[in-house]
What we know:
Order of helices and strands: EEHHEE
Strand order of the largest sheet: 1-3-4-2
Oligomer: single chain
Distance between the termini: 12 Å
Strand content: 35-45%
Helix content: 25-40%
CATH superfamily: Hypothetical protein apc22750. Chain B
Number of strands: 4
Structural class: alpha+beta
Number of domains: 1
CATH class: Alpha Beta
Amino acid sequence: MIVTNVESVSGKQIVEHYGLVQGSTIRAKHVGRDIMAGLKNIVGGELKGYTELLVEARKEAMARMVAQAEEFGANAVVNVRFSTSSVAQGAAEILCYGTAVKVQ
């Protein structure tokens, strides 16, 4: 599966459009990570626990989007974007979406 954030795949032609595909996940903060983040706020620096949480969330959302594209018979997803939103105190949704296509 080719996944790209541009509107086409270099060297390939889009021969079929399947439409919008998306994948999402909602992740909540971890108490242990909150304590460490509070300490980091005092001294500064990267909040590695939250960085790892967001990396995992993006991977999960993208995997779900790719699975939906495969169900349509697509072999590529173009114009991929990520979006986040707060859904509850301490929880956020990561949404990954794009256009499922067939290229050759």
